[in-house]
Amino acid sequence: MSGDNSQYHCPQGTPPMYKCQYRGSLYGHWSDGSNLPDTQHDTYGRNLATNGISAKCPPFDPTCSTHSPRIVVVAIGFSNWTKEMCGNQPTQNQDGTWEISHQVPLPPKASDLNCSLDDNIPPKSAAWSFINKAKINPDVNPSLVFVDCAEIGAVAGVWLDDHTNFPPHINTGAYTNCNNILARWPGGGIDPAEVQVVLLKNADSGETGAPNPLPLVELPSSGFSGCTGIVSTPYDACILEEYLTQIAQNLLKDPPGDTYKVFSGVKQLFVHTRIDGHYANPDPLVSPLNPEPHAYETGFAVKWLIQAQVDDVNTPGISHVFPGPLDYTTTPPEAPWMDWGAYMWASDTRIPCPHCPIPSVPQPNATPLTWQQQVAGPSYCVSGGSGLECDFQAKSGSHTDNTHPSLCGRSKTSDEMMYFFCNSPYTKPWFTVAGGGCTAQHVPVPQDSCDGFGQGTDTTGD
Fold first, then answer.
1. Are 386 and 42 in contact (CB under 8 A)?
2. How far is 89 from 150, CA to CA, in rounded Å?
3. How far, in whole angstroms, is CA 87 from its chain's centroid?
4. Rounded CA gap, 116 and 450, in Å?
5. Could you tell me if residue 157 is inside a domain?
């Protein structure tokens, strides 16, 4: 299968990704096709990062007599995200038993919950994850506590409420599962209200039984006039935008009648994009999940989502997205302030975003991000072996899907994320020690290298 697809590449002579069109919509992170954020949005985000997010004592120890102040960061999303964040996070069944990677119904160890390296499903998988790389980096703020609440199978529709259990083996709502992980956190647990930052990455699914019953429909080549809601707009990018909107709104509001708690103290929400989906097995019985062009088009859902929030703030009282609004300046806010996370998509060896993961921060020494699959089957890349890459798990459970990132793929995304959070003006003040950023020694510019990382097998999931 080839990942080369010219429709994702700007014509020769134009700036890659920016100021050119894909099916009538401009590339680029903002509505005008540029990479410069809205002034008000930018100013608010910078001020929030510097003055709005700080380490706080746990509610059960308000004077920090036995606990250190902390900044709690939670990740929510689907299987790709839990693999990239933590290796694989446990989930809990209705009867109270836990499934670690959906294989062993055992109570999770503290190390399972906080992504330490003594996990063994698969062996040492957390070593290539973002959370582990952040935890061991001396430039990262030691007050940060990272919690992976992403779940295998928890596609975007699962996070709309706490009642959608997909696939069937997940018997606990996504928010309840997250509450349970927080409650079992070592040292007395974490109150959901402590969460200040949420990292979201998700997509729609084409699997039978997924929350969205409609088939995945790509954006039309012409005649697209924008998203008007799930009822009248069948396009997957629009449906995903609606789902992301609802998730952003729901983060701050405990729904009446439910027992779970959301994250009422969230101040920032960073929405991340999919990795390349060209190598996904197209067999509908194997990996319908989120192949191309839908993986690429998640970027438009994110772009339109953030632009809708910008418009809601700049022209208050007018909802710019279904089911809006997303204004973070209201009392109470309609949603957290949100922005792009690290941009993770590339079309095989075609590079749409040469300055990613932070397009506005030059990275002159960076090797552009690519996604390749040159090793077939559940095998391992050879260290120093002529640059062979295996960025995707060829085998996921009993399926050969090439959808989920291999250990190498996870390392790529976590390197992009480390560079993003160390350098973004919206994260550096709270992510790094004293807001000083990360040294090149500890967090170099991401390099596109795969030597020595296993491909291996893993669990089935989205």
1. no
2. 7
3. 14
4. 23
5. yes
Which segments in the chain show pLDDT lower than 50? 1-6, 8-15, 101-106, 119-123, 355, 378-379, 384-385
Contact 367, 448 (CB under 8 A): yes
**Domain total in the chain:** 1
pLDDT of residue 458: 62
Residue 174 domain-assigned (yes or no): yes
430 in Cβ contact with 141 (< 8 Å): yes
* Residue written as token pair 């062979």: 388
- Predicted pLDDT at 13: 44
Q: Output the 3-class SS for the chain.
A: CCCCCHHHCCCCCCCCCCCCEECCEECCCCCCCCCCCCHHHHHHHHHHHHHHCCCECCCCCCCCCCCCCEEEEEEEECHHHHHHHCCCCCEECCCCCEEECCCEECCCCHHHHCCCCCCECCECHHHHCHHHHHHCCCCECCCEEEEECCCCCCCHHHHHCCCCCCCCCCCCCHHHHHHHHHHCCCCCCCCHHHEEEEEEECCCCCCCCCCCCCCCCCCCCCCCCCCCCCCCCCCHHHHHHHHHHHHHHHCCCCCCCCCCCCCCCCCEEEEECCCCCCCCCCCCCCCCCCCCCHHHHHHHHHHHHHHHHHHHHHCCCCCCCCCCCCCCCCCCCCCCEEEECCCCCCECCECCCCCCCCCCCCCCCCCCCCCCECCCCCCECCCCCCCCCECECCEECCECCCCCECHHHHHHHHHHHHHHHHHCCCCHHHHEHHHCCCCCCCCCCCCCCCCCCECCEECCCC
Domain assignment of residue 1, yes or no = no
Distance CA 326, CA 368 (A): 34
Boundaries of domain holding 266: 6-458
Structure tokens at 222: 């012409």
pTM of the model: 0.90
Q: Which two tokens stand for residue 41?
A: 């949005």
The answer to the question of residue 258 being in a domain is yes
